[in-house]
Recover the amino acids of this structure.
């Protein structure tokens, strides 16, 4: 009889990575794709804005966005305790929360929510997308998310077994459909940081 190994919780995995210093490497690896997403969603802003990074890790995206003169509020939330400890160590005056993303709600709704390599760790990503749509974002708010684990990127398909964590594999069309099902409109997707060796980060955008 085959013994099925119990899956590691993604938050536990990332806490261990923070202890090992892998959070810095993750930030460096993801930076080109995140920069494309930030440029897409923030560069056109003509007014001040508020921002939340969902699954903020060590807070590097929060700190990057907070440097924009138009940003009046930036916060991060992550379920990995050690990642939030790293965020607070880097930015003692920052706004970071260690909570489950499905149960956490901000005190005030914001203009922009960003996530990078987060949504597919949930068994039902639409549940979190719905929560962001209804509980995190103002009317007219924007959600932008990047995922490297998706159907059209076959090199990523072994990751759930490689890391022994749950990941929900969706196609580009399925991600767009999830955004639309959560009430987002003007939805758009593209591949960021694409190269000969990398299929690219699938970026999905929508606005309320």
């Amino acid at each position: 009889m085959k013994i099925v190994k119990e899956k590691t919780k993604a938050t536990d995995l990332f806490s261990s990575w923070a202890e090992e210093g892998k959070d810095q490497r993750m930030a460096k690896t993801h930076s080109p794709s995140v920069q494309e997403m930030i440029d897409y969603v923030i560069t056109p802003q003509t007014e001040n804005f508020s921002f939340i990074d969902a699954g903020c890790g060590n807070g590097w995206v929060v700190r990057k966005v907070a440097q924009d003169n138009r940003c009046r509020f930036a916060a991060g939330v992550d379920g990995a305790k050690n990642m939030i400890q790293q965020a607070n160590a880097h930015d003692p005056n920052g706004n970071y929360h260690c909570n489950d993303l499905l149960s956490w709600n901000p005190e005030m709704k914001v203009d922009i929510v960003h996530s990078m390599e987060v949504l597919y760790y949930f068994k039902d990503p639409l549940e979190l997308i719905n929560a962001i749509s209804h509980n995190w974002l103002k009317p007219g708010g924007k959600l932008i998310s990047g995922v490297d684990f998706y159907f059209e990127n076959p090199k990523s398909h072994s990751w759930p077994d490689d890391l022994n964590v749950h990941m929900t594999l969706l196609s580009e069309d399925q991600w767009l459909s999830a955004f639309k099902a959560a009430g987002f409109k003007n939805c758009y997707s593209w591949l960021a940081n694409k190269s000969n060796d990398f299929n690219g980060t699938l970026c999905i955008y929508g606005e309320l």
Remarks:
- The chain has a mean pLDDT of 93.
